[in-house]
User: Fold these one by one.
Assistant:
Number 1:
Amino acid sequence: MKLVVANWKMYLTIRESVAFAKRMVRSVPKPRARIVICATAPALAPVSAVLRKTPYLLGAQDVGIARHGPYTGELAPGDLRTLGCHYVIVGHSERRRLLGESDTVVRQKLETALAAGLSPILCVGESLAERREGEAHSIVRRQLTAALKGLKTYNLKLTTYTIAYEPVWAIGTGTPATVKEAVLMHDFVRSTAKKLLPRGTKISVIYGGSVDQKNIISLLREHAIDGVLVGGASTKPSFIKMLKVVH
Ligand code: PGA
């Protein structure tokens, strides 16, 4: 089953998040793909209440670097579980770029998420300058290696390692990677992650960056693309139309 992750970023207020979640589950009660809604931290509890007893899953957009303790402002992974989160986005390029999240921090977050039983969605991707310099592969390899190499395995059978290939130049720009570009990078991400993780680990590679109603189906049609991460378009009414056609 394909995975569709909605990253609502900081676009919706709590009230808007709840209203949109209600509209979604009412309009498309049985989506034919696995849908994960990543609401803002303050909206998680009320959105969780709306999604309960529906096939929709809840995700957080970030997680703290530790389980518990003196970490002002961080999100405790156990609390995210208690709120009903199954997934968490880790290392989104907006956090790497705007908030200075390093590969080391991303690694810590990945570990705390896994230890708490959350399925991480690890984001990797190169910037436009890096792609132009021919460094796309080496940047993505560096990000994957820092995050995954030597990772202690938690519930290998239960956890799927979801990796979102999100070229920075495609995020929020309206210029997605072409299907061909995405497939090539997905093959690279999958083979690199496979080498870094223990044998038998389940890996799912999804694409993010200007996914919308126009391109979602052609992306999901590809065998190499296990799903999509939708940002801006997942907060608009057209997302409901996408939910009706994804499978
Ligand atoms: P976008 O964002 O769909 O608005 O380009 C994708 C993402 O940042 O995950």
Number 2:
Amino acid sequence: MSYPKNFLFGSATSSHQIEGDNKNSDWYNWEIIPGRIRNNDNSLRGDSWQNWRQDIELLKNTNQNAYRMSIEWAKIEPTKGHFNLEAIDNYRQQFKELKKNNIKIMLTLFHFTLPQWVADKGGFANRKNICYFTHFSEKMIEEFGDLVDLWATLNEPNVYVLKGYIEGLWCPGQKNYLNAIKSYFNFIAAHNQAYKAMKKIRPDAQIGPVISVMAFETSKPNVINNIKVFFARQFSYDLFNRLTIKNSDFLGLNYYLKTTFGPKNKSHKKILLSDYNWEISPEGIYQITKEQAHWGIPIYITENGTADAEDKIRPQFIKDHLHWLEKAITEGAPVKGYFHWSLIDNFEWAAGYTMKFGLHTIDRKPRPSAKTYAEQIKKYQQESK
Ligand code: BGC
């Protein structure tokens, strides 16, 4: 068993969560209202907008050959139709530095944040706004198409709809089922339109969506629980995938946890939980990649990680998930890359800085798991030679 040669071993971040300096986005204006974010934290603690070179050093120090990052639409187009050349240049410098170090780039165009002017027009709940996203995507592939290896249009539209339009815990903070349904389908249209427009400019570009997947299971198979599992899969990702697959060169899967329907059995006590109380299941990454292989396009694990402030769980978490992923690949799943979430601790949306997902702390100090990941990458790369 081994990982294919040229397999991408990287980590992932998003602009709003690490960059700081982002006052034109809807999320910034949302998070500064007291009471919305744990400890009233805000994203301005991030400093990667200035100190991105240090992030690239961390990638190099840990043998990573790929980086999934995002660009902040609000920085690039702070007002409608006005593109900020300095911001474009900042990203260009970052991409060039990554290329110089042979680090492949997966670039996400939308990772939960919008320019305030788009949000003011109703964000993704308003179908008329899709054209702005398409235009932004075209502009970005014109600017960066020579440097970016893989394009992720949307990050986890399914989670965004749940948190932002059903639970109301994330920006835009609504509990509005109609807008939830509208934005879900508008995201599908946005992906499809951006894909087609970008392909016209660069037919060889590799473009796909990133969707959150869970290992859904039932502890007691019966009609009701089986139906629950079926609908959970349908609405959280299968429907989205079915309606975008024709316009996707790859499928990005963010996998974190398992969700079990039915009574908790006695072995529940042994279940490993992250600081977020998410149930950790390394086999789940195997299950989900095998299951999603049927679409017949390459798969990237675009996020996988755990909230673990003390780094007690993470080293073994990394080993176990890489082991199960290798098994899926050996059995034919077309997985081309794995991105650990995250390179450094970051602004964890409504949880502020309380949840620590980083291989490195916010001051960029490596946790023991950074070494584990580096060793695992080296080991797998040697085996694949
Ligand atoms: C998101 C990240 C987030 C991570 C951990 C994913 O839902 O894409 O932005 O930080 O999970 O919660």
Number 3:
Amino acid sequence: MIKIIRKLTLTSKNQSQKIAKESSHLLSAMKENINRRWILHLDMDAFYASIEQLDHPEYRGKPVVVGADPNGGEGRGVVSTASYEAREYGIGSAMPISRAYRACPTAVFLPVRMHRYQELSAAIMAFLRNFTPAIEIASIDEAFLDLTGTERLFGDPVALARSIKGQISAKFNLTASLGLGPNKLIAKIASDLEKPDGLTIVRHDEVTTFLKNLPITRIWGVGRKTAGYLEKLGISKVGQLAEVSENFLEAKFGKYGAKLAKLARGIDDSPVVTESERKQMSKEITFAEDVEGFETIKPSFIDLCERVGFRMRLNNFLGRTIIVKVRYSDFTTITRSRTLGMTNHTKTIIDTVLELIEEVDFSRKIRLIGVGVSNLDANSPEQLDLFAEDEHELEAVIDKIRIKFGENALRRGINLW
Ligand code: TTP
Ligand code: MG
């Protein structure tokens, strides 16, 4: 009897040990799964300029600058982007167009053909949706894809990233740079590292080594001011920043400091936010050099309105509140907003923004401007048809025709405003 009891106790002890072992395996597998996200970031190379070179073979291999009219070096406004050939001359986005002209007067200077870029952007994003519904369209030429759990359908995420890259260049005749990593931060840094036409894979156990020697400005939110302060302390590499205590950074930079400590260690839990989960659509430009004067800055505001409006229509969104943001060179920031009826019409956004910025002081040097629409509502297709009766909302329909049949199918009066 004693033997039997002992045996029973032994069995149940063994069993409970086995169960404990299994559940700890399960837990760590689950934990690992949580930690084992695979995020892909894709960013097209020299997007506007590459499209110009695609549409005009005679511009291929030449320095191409897309943006404001250089007007023989007297032009106002800024560069939207430059081809990699033009970058050799030090030309880049947000630089005054007059400076770009001085750097390379023989470059091909072209105006922005926003509708053409939007048309290709829409096609590329639609293609990317084939791989995962968890896609965050971060800008006109940039998206995050959460590939976690897509293995069963598409196999290894590393092979999938390679295949997506190949398919983009085969389908669209444009190159993209991709970064694959355990989170958005790493994926974004990775996609930028080997531009153009790059593919950088950072596996989960490679994060620390990957970040170690990168400059701290690669980390989200580390701008001139933060970097300047840290550099005075002798911290210029991410690896050095990762050794600074979270408490210290929090004491110095507040809430962002705590986040910064995590980012420096490669920790970023931020989710890929799909368009339907988005609370606000906004777009900002940080000028390469601080700029002043309404006439200089107005085209950039209009450009931002175009980009925000298109993305809203692309995603069937309507929004109520239009917001503008202006950050001066001393980092003081002002925002102005106005709440209207529901809209996603570029002209309404532009009209409202132009009214809102009437109160802005353009005689001071400006570092950054932004345009956003909040109070968003997903629009149903039925609503869209209803609105289409209205002249304003016709634009949504026009976009769709344009996306389907190409830019020349319908052309909007370019100087509508
Ligand atoms: P980016 O992806 O920042 O630049 P890019 O695609 O031209 O070059 P890269 O190879 O470095 O990615 O921006 C995408 C497009 O957005 C760009 O082609 C033009 C537009 N844009 C502006 O109009 N103004 C700006 O200040 C920036 C940064 C981009
Ligand atoms: Mg790009």
